[in-house]
Amino acid sequence: MNLIEQTRQQADALFNQLGLPSKRDEHWKYTDVSAWADALQAEPTSSNIKAENLGIADLDVYRLVFINGVFDGTSSNLPHDIDILPMSEFLSTHEGQALEAYARLFDVQADAPLMNGFEAYNAAHATDGAAVCLAANSKLDKPLYILHINNQNNIVRHGFILGEHAEAEIIEHFIGTDAQRGLSNMASHIILQDGAQLQHYRLQQESSKQAHIARVDVKQHQHSTYTLHAVELGGALSRVDVLVNLAEQGASCALHGLFVLSGRQHVDHHTRVDHTAPHCTSNETYRTVLDGRSHAVFNGKIMVHKDAIKTDSSMSNGNILLSKHAEIDTKPELEIYNDDVLCAHGATVGQLDDKQLFYMRSRGISQEAAQELLTFAFADEVLAAMNNDVVRRYVEQAAFAKLPHNEDIEGMLTT
Amino acid sequence: MLVVQDLHAEVDGKAILKGINLEVNAGEVHAIMGPNGSGKSTLANVIAGRDGYKITSGSVTYKNKDLLEMSPEERAWEGVFLAFQYPVEIPGVNNTYLLKAGVNAQRKHQGLDALDAFDFMSIVKEKAKLVELDPSFLSRSVNEGFSGGEKKRNEIFQMAVLNPSLALLDETDSGLDIDALRIVAGGVNKLRSADNAIVMVTHYQRLLNYIEPDFVHVLADGKIQKTGDKSLALELEERGYDWVKEEA
Ligand SMILES: Nc1ncnc2c1ncn2[C@@H]1O[C@H](COP(=O)(O)OP(=O)(O)O)[C@@H](O)[C@H]1O
Ligand SMILES: [Mg+2]
């Protein structure tokens, strides 16, 4: 039995031990996944989805397409001389150190933060994923666009390993074609070597009956930088755990989150940033706009360990409830084990600002338009951090389409 | 143009305006002076339509219409403008586009076609020059990161673009240095005409050296205690407000 198979069997054993999380678990008390338990192990059947024209148009990118977790070669477009491959192919064509490094990404430990049965099951049973292996000092000349098209169960595990001072932009996009009920079980495991830089987008637009469960696990070495843009628009239920370990000095991460929810959508993000080493920086900004009977959960934990002196960390979570039936549970948490740190964190929950509304109305903007405009501006502020203009515009359009708007007010935003 | 009769207003059950009477005609400039907390901003806000005030009695008539029945935006469309004592910052909303939407909503209300981008920008540039507003402020978020003086200048710039019939200036002079005061006052003077009226709230006589009022009112304890011409402002500067209340 080879290394990978062995690791995956251990993961399966861990899954059998853990089972699926229940509402009795402190980290799952707001998110009930019991309705999807039966879907977890269902085998996907073949589908006749045509992927060619799906996804974000006008992107100049390398393209890797997965249909219900199965690599779709015909609609993909991969570079020739760089190691970006379907995981299945990568594992069967590499050996030695490269293989070992990726095999480790399948190694799940019961005592890892926020470990749960979905992640163990994913490590054991993922059908495929993207293996991105960038050599030291290499820069990916185009972004990598990983399109996931789902209408059934799918289990995908990505591994992105960026060598020293390598740079990349990776856009993960999740869309659904039709509304069958299914579960997407996703994981992205990321290692950034010294000085590496990754811009990472996760755009969740699954179909309205899909559940999306994901784990993003990032390990950062010296002076590496990681930026996440996590956008939640689709799906019936979405739970994403983001774990960043600032393991060596000078590393920095920025996590930007935007949820725009309506109907009965439920989205839960647990983020956990470990400041393990000195002189690391983390900035976290999450914003949610909730309409209808939607429910958002934000749990952001920053853990500053004993040796992590000169930590600079901030976290903010802003929420706007457009409907009195919408609900937010927000819990920013800070645990600090040394006193040489700069930390700021807070959360706000509110309706729109009365003073701003009156100011706009006194200039002749109708109440409705003023409310819409303030909501757009609130959401748009997080999107301003996106460096890819095509993606930003796409997300803007998609987010705005979900917000109530009667007048053409998009031109009134500053970005 | 504006007739305020026996206006009483409360905030959180506390009486603030206790019987205001004020008549403003086209072509006139009125100054309202008075101690802090006497209700000057409350009066301006009630006329502009801000929520949170309970009108317990009295009326406000503007161009023969009941102003208190109108929403803030309807008042704006009808030509009422308030330059805020504390202009509000609105991150993410573009200063110029906000104005453009305001102007075009007003035009729609008046049965006029929307201005196209070119015509609108030529007005904007002309008015920005009038108050010497740096064009870089046009594309920024509304008031965000503006200094106190820049915010006040932006208020008068907006007023110039919206071209109101009735302008309420709430302490537009506070926080302005003497050069900025001259520029802002110059802007206001250029907008004066026989068809419009200005009501300005101020603490300082010095503004009235630049914008000459036809009437000066003293508002104290929720009432207009005394009305005179601009010489009253000089007298207030010398003697304070207490004697006015005693006399009344
Ligand atoms: N929104 C409000 N909530 C509570 N009190 C208010 C509010 N607005 C005004 N007031 C009170 O009303 C009084 C008059 O305030 P204001 O009109 O701002 O006075 P001025 O502009 O003359 O200084 C003050 O006592 C003030 O505290
Ligand atoms: Mg005041």
Number of strands of chain B: 12
Largest sheet of chain A: 10 strands, mixed
Low-confidence stretches of chain A: none
At CATH level 2, the architecture of chain B is 3-Layer(aba) Sandwich
Assembly annotation: heterodimer
Describe the protein in words:
The complex is a heterodimer of chains A (about 425) and B (about 250). With about 425 residues, chain A is an alpha/beta fold. Chain A folds into 2 domains: about 5-250, no CATH class; about 355-415, no CATH class. Chain A is about 20% helix and about 40% strand. In chain A, the strands form 2 sheets. A 10-stranded mixed beta sheet of chain A has the order 2-1-5-7-9-11-13-15-17-19, covered by helices on one side. In chain A, α6 packs across α7 (about 365-385) and α7 runs antiparallel to α8 (about 390-400). Chain A is globular, with a radius of gyration of 21 Å. The mean pLDDT of chain A is about 95. Chain B has a single domain (about 1-245), classed as Rossmann fold. Chain B is about 40% helix and about 30% strand. Chain B contains 9 helices and 12 strands. In chain B, the strands form 3 sheets. In chain B, strands 6-9-10-3-11-12 form a 6-stranded mixed beta sheet, sandwiched between helices. Chain B has a 4-stranded antiparallel beta sheet with strand order 2-1-4-5, covered by helices on one side. Chain B is globular, with a radius of gyration of 18 Å. The interface between A and B is medium-sized, with 28 and 36 residues.
